[in-house]
């Protein structure tokens, strides 16, 4: 007999059970579901909707069910459709008919919205923590490579030299925006839908704030129709996850390129590389490739969720059961990628000499030659044209700028003096860029200081929310 079987005259078709059930994947919400139920039952007792003894029995039963599920001792079945009804069934088996009082004043519609929010807020804290670990691994490499210079690129053509630390710090700032977005989204996740009932609220004199408080929510969803049909927080998470994946995939692409023989700028540690079953010499950057590849599924889940929600009338519709797998998979995908990323970055070997060599074998100091001429009061546009000619000449002569003699330079401009050789050195070129945010040593160090500061901020945010999750006191009634 189904929990809702009263008005039915025959059993559901087996295929329908299979098709409509979600227990295969929503069992992931078991602990959140029980946590929510404990808070609900505590509130029912303190509002005198059920007795304290009944609440105590139900709570004990729920705790026992939680343990059984945790240890794999509970049978979760498609016959009971989803995690909510499976748990209710297990509870009734555990404590008898009084277990049937748990669902007073509640619907699966507000219950599932609650579970999703509890799951997501925990995941946001974990993911922010993992983001911080990646930021720290990047800063660690940046500090070690403050004096490592490599070509900076535009259009994947060598453009101007930059410090490797500067390049890595670009990702630290991207990840900081990601962390900020996650932290900001937490506020919208952290509102309690419980008490919205199926859609219109409930006739029982429940106390929504009490449940919200005991679960450490910041407040309650103010409109019951919205409370049960809002999945904006899932979309927002998937969107934030898409940006994180996009950022990681860009860095992955660079790691893949840099570790090729063509670039030869880094070597990934053996522990974070894989071999080929056929070609014995191969060492492949599989982790970086796979993180890059998995970006596809994360974007896919975002599109999937947006499309599922499009044009859904209020309030709950079964379509919304489709909100889970994409969210779970996204959380797992990001956890996997971020957990591997930090040690992969920390353990990679940076080939300083090869990077420096690359900088010396290009014309990426051409802008500096033009800037030098500008300092001799030649208008920039004219200087640009002169340097264009010098580069053309150098290419013909098979030389780089630093290999030209002073005579050769002076054929193009008499304003060029002996000091040009100092000005065109990679170290001078990077240090000459000393405006805020640029690649000089001082400015890169300045970036470190900003980063230490916002990473500290991330860490204290994580700490306070970890604590508030632990301190949920849903057992006090
Ligand atoms: N398994 C459902 C879901 O995840 C729970 C809510 C179902 N509510 C309902 N009235 N059918 O969306």
Automatic annotation (TrEMBL):
Q: Which reaction does it catalyse?
A: 2-(N(omega)-L-arginino)succinate = fumarate + L-arginine
Specify where it is mainly localized. Answer: cytoplasm
**In which pathway does this enzyme or protein participate?**
Amino-acid biosynthesis; L-arginine biosynthesis; L-arginine from L-ornithine and carbamoyl phosphate: step 3/3
Coiled coil stretches, renumbered: none
The chain positions of domain Argininosuccinate lyase C-terminal read 363-431
Domain Fumarate lyase N-terminal: residue ranges: 6-300
Q: Which UniProt keywords apply?
A: Amino-acid biosynthesis, Arginine biosynthesis, Cytoplasm, Lyase
GO molecular function terms listed in the Swiss-Prot or TrEMBL record: lyase activity
Please give the Gene3D superfamilies that the UniProt record associates with this protein: Fumarase/aspartase (C-terminal domain) (1.10.40.30), Fumarase/aspartase (Central domain) (1.20.200.10), Fumarase/aspartase (N-terminal domain) (1.10.275.10)
Localization terms from the record? Cytoplasm
Pfam families, sorted: ASL_C2 (PF14698), Lyase_1 (PF00206)
Q: What class of enzyme is it?
A: lyase
Give the matching PROSITE patterns: FUMARATE_LYASES (PS00163)
Family in the record: Belongs to the lyase 1 family. Argininosuccinate lyase subfamily.
Recorded protein name is Argininosuccinate lyase
Organism field: Salinibacillus aidingensis
């Amino acid at each position: 007999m189904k929990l809702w079987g009263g008005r039915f005259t025959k059993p559901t078709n087996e295929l329908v059970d299979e098709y409509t059930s979600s227990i295969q994947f929503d069992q992931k919400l078991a602990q959140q579901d029980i946590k929510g139920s404990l808070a609900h039952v505590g509130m029912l007792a303190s509002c005198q909707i059920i007795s304290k003894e009944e609440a105590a029995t139900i709570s004990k039963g729920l705790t026992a069910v939680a343990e059984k599920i945790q240890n794999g001792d509970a049978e979760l079945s498609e016959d009971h459709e989803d995690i909510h009804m499976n748990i209710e069934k297990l509870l009734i088996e555990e404590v008898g008919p009084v277990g049937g009082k748990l669902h007073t004043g509640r619907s699966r519609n507000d219950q599932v919205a609650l579970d999703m929010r509890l799951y997501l807020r925990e995941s946001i804290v974990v993911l922010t923590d993992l983001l911080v670990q990646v930021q720290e691994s990047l800063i660690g490499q940046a500090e070690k490579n403050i004096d490592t210079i490599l070509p900076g690129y535009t259009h994947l053509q060598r453009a101007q030299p930059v410090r490797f630390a500067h390049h890595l710090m670009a990702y630290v700032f991207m990840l900081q925006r990601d962390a900020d977005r996650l932290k900001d989204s937490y506020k919208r996740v952290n509102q309690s839908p419980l008490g919205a009932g199926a859609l219109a609220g409930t006739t029982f004199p429940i106390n929504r704030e009490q449940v919200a408080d005991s679960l450490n929510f910041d407040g309650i969803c103010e409109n019951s129709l919205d409370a049960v049909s809002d999945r904006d927080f899932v979309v927002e998470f998937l969107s934030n996850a898409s940006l994180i994946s996009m950022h990681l995939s860009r860095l992955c692409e660079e790691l893949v390129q840099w570790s090729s023989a063509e670039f030869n700028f880094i070597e990934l540690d053996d522990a974070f590389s894989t071999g080929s079953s056929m070609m014995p010499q191969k060492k492949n950057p599989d982790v970086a490739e796979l993180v890059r590849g998995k970006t596809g599924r994360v974007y896919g889940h975002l599109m999937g969720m947006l499309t599922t929600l499009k044009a859904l009338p209020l309030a709950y519709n079964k379509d919304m059961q489709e909100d889970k797998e994409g969210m779970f998979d996204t959380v797992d995908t990001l956890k996997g990628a971020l957990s591997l990323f930090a040690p992969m970055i920390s353990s990679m070997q940076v080939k300083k000499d090869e990077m420096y060599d690359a900088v010396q074998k290009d014309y990426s100091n051409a802008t500096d030659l033009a800037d030098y001429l500008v300092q001799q009061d030649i208008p920039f546009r004219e200087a640009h044209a002169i340097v264009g000619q010098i580069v053309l000449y150098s290419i013909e002569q098979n030389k780089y700028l630093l290999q030209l003699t002073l005579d050769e330079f002076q054929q193009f401009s008499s304003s060029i003096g002996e000091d040009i050789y100092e000005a065109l050195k990679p170290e001078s070129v990077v240090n000459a860029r000393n405006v805020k945010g640029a690649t000089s040593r001082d400015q890169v160090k300045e970036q470190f200081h900003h980063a230490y500061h916002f990473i500290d901020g991330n860490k204290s945010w994580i700490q306070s929310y970890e604590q508030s999750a632990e301190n949920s006191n849903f057992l006090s009634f």
